[in-house]
Amino acid sequence: MTLRWAIRELMKSRRQLNGVFFILIIGFLGPLLSSSLETSVDRYLDVRARQLLSADLALANVREFKKEELAVIDKVTSEIKRANSAEFVTMGKGRDVSTLIEIQAVSETFPVIGSFRFLDGHDEISASSLSREDIAWVFPEVLAQLGLKEGDSLSVGALSVRIAGTLKEAPGLSRGGVFAPRVFIGRNRLERTGLTDLGSQAQYRVYLQLPAGESPKIAGARAKELLDNDEINVRTPDDATAGFERFFTFFNLYLVSVSMIIFALSWISSFYILQIYLQERLRNSAVLLTYGATKTRALTVSALQIFFVMLTSLVVASVIVYSALSFVRHPLADVLPPGFELVFTGRDFLKLLAISLASSVAFLVPSAMKMRSAPLADLLNETSVGLTHRRTFIAYSPLALVFIALSVWLMNSARNALLLTGGLVIAVAIAYALARAVFRAVFVLVQNKPGVVRLIATQLSRSRFGTNLCFITILIGTLVLNIVPHLMKSAVQEIEPLQGRDVPALFLFNIPESGVEHLKAFAPLHQIELRHLAPMIQARVKLVNGRPPENEMFQKFPVRLTYRSGLIQSEKLLRGQMPSTPVREGEKVAVSIEDAYADRTGLQLGDDLQFEIQGVPVDAKITSVRSVKWTDFNPNFFMVLQ
After folding, report:
1. Alpha-carbon radius of gyration of the chain
2. Are the CB atoms for 205 and 85 separated by under 8 Å?
C-alpha cells in the first residue's frame, strides 16, 4: 500500500521532477567516472605490481637461505611455483673495455609471474635456456658500453658467456640504489664466476607464486614472524609499486575534486527543487495522518519517492558511463599503458546506491522536522512551516555528513575530504553573504522605481532563498570553470619530466673527495656547468627520541645523508627553519626531512635523532620539514643535515 501510494504520487509529479532527474544524472556522472577510473587504476597496478616483483611474494637475504628457513616458508605459504636468484654488482669485460654491471643469476623457473621481452619482438616465459647453456641476456646499455653485439662473449669473473639476446623488458626488481645495467645468467653458472666467495655482497632472493585468494601481505607477515630474522626482507606487490602511488594520487585528487564539486552543485539544485516538492506534499502527508496513518508511514512515502528519483538517475548515469567506457576502450588502446583497461564494476554502482539511500534520508530530514514540529491544522491549510536556526542546522547536517562520506570513499583520505568540504562550505558562505548584500542593495535601489525593473525585483524578493541559491550555484560554477584548468596545470607540472636545458646531460656518482677540486677545474675548460655537488654520507639511525627506532626501515637499512647551507630550487620549506650556518661544537646537528618520508617513517618536527656514521655517534634534531619535486633530477635527499 505504501509503495503503491508513493509510486502513484511520483507519476503524477513526473513533469515537475524532470529537472531533478536531469540534474542528478549530471551529478552522478562525476563520482561514477572517478570510481571507475580508480577501480581501473587499482586493477592495473595490481597486475603491474606482480609483474614488477615477478611474484606474489619475494624474500631477500644477504646470504643463501638455509634449509630450515625454506621449510618455514613452505609452512606458512602454499606456493604453486617457486624460483630463486642471486644478485650482485661486478665488472663485466668485453674485448678491450670493462664496465659496471649487475648480475642476476636466476633459476630455470624464473620468473614465476611475467616474462622476458626482447628487442626482436619475442618473449620468454622462463629462463630455462640460461640454465642449459653458457649464455646471457643483456640490456642494450651493456652492448653500448662494452662495444659488443649479440653473439659476442662477455666475461664475468672466471665465467665467459655468449650474449644470446637483447632485452627490452625483464621481470623482477633490481637491487635498490644500484646504477648498473642488468645481465641475466643461469643460477647454476653462479659458482663458476668465482665472485660469490666469503665477503661478497651478493643478495639472494626467493620468489613465490601463491594460489588465487591467498593474501601476499598475510603470508609475508606470517613468514616474517616465524623466520624472526631482521636480515631477511619480505616484499609484496604493493611494495613494488610504491613509487607509482604519488603519480596517480595527483590525478585522482584532481578528478575527484572536480567531480565532487559538480556533484555538490547538482545536489544543491536538486535539494532545493525537492524541498519545494516536499513542501507541497506536506498537505498530502497531513491527509494520511487524518485517516489514521502514522507519521513514520507518511515520511516513508516521501522517502521512497526521493529514493526512486535518485535510483532512476543513478541507473541512467551508470548506463551512460558503461556505454562511454565501452565505446572509448578500443580507440584508447594505443594511448593507455599496456594491460590498462577501463572498467565499470557492480561494486562502483552499489557504493553509489548506498550513497543514494543515505542521501534520500538526508533530503527528507528537513521535512520530517517540519512535520514533527508543526500542528496538523497548519499542514492541512498548507501554512508555510519554518524551523529555528538550531533546527535548521540539525536538519541540514546529514547532507554534509553524506557528502564527506562520499568524498572520503573517492579520495581515500579523510583529511583531503574534510579540506574539500571545508573549502566548499567557505565558498558557499562567502557566496551567500555576497548574494544577500547584492540583492539587498538592488531591492533598495529599485523599490521606488516604476515599471518592469521593480516588478522583476519584487518577484525575486518573494523567494529570496531560491534567488540566493541560484546566485551561489552560478558563482561556484563559474569558480569551478576557472579553477579546473589551473588544477590540471598544477597536477601536470608536478609530475611531468623536465625538458630541454633543464634536463641534466650527465650524472656523476661516488666522486672521491680528492677529485672534487679537479672536477671543478675540469668543467669550465670544457664548457660544462656543474649544477650541484652534493656530498653523500651513509649512516644508520640508532635512536629516535632516545629509543631504538621501531620503524623497520631504520632497523634494516642505512640512510643516505647530505649537508648543505640551504634549499635548492627543487625544494620548498613547509614547516620549521633550515639553518644556513655551520653547526657549532657541542650542539645537535639540525636536520631537514622530506614531508612524505616523514609520514612513512613517523618522524616529526622536533624529534631527536642519533645517527651512527662510520661508528661515530652524531646527535641531531629535526628542525624543518620540506617538500621535494623529485622529477627535476636534482640531487635530492630525504634527510639534509646542517
Report:
1. 33
2. yes
pLDDT at 478: 72
Cα maximum dimension of the chain: 104
pLDDT, tens digit (0-9, with 9 covering 90-100), for 97-123: 888 889 999 999 998 888 898 998 888
435 — pLDDT class (breaks 50, 70, 90): confident
> 141 vs 18, 44, 121, 224, 497, CA distance in Å?
64, 29, 18, 37, 22
Sign of the C-alpha dihedral, residues 358, 359, 365, 368? negative
Position 20, amino acid = V
Helices (H), 496-513: none
Three-state DSSP class for residue 543: strand
Of 1, 8, 19, 2, residue with least CA distance to 276: 19
Query: Crossing angle of helices 242-290/14-53, nearest 10°?
Result: 160
DSSP 31-78: HHHHHHHHHHHHHHHHHHHHHHHTSSEEEEESSPPPHHHHHHHHHH--
Grid coordinates belonging to 592: 631537514
529 φ/ψ angles, rounded to the nearest 5 degrees: -95, 115
Note the pLDDT tens digit of each residue in 32-44: 877 777 777 777 7
Is the pTM for the entire model greater than 0.90? Answer: no
> Helices 295-328 and 2-12 meet at what angle, rounded to 10?
60
Q: Which three cell numbers stand for residue 370?
A: 517540519
Place of cell 647454476: 188
Query: What is residue 640's predicted lDDT score, i.e. its pLDDT?
Result: 93
Please report, in angstroms and rounded to a whole number, the separation of the first and last CA atoms in the chain: 77
- Calculate ∠ Cα 378-380-386, nearest 5°: 35
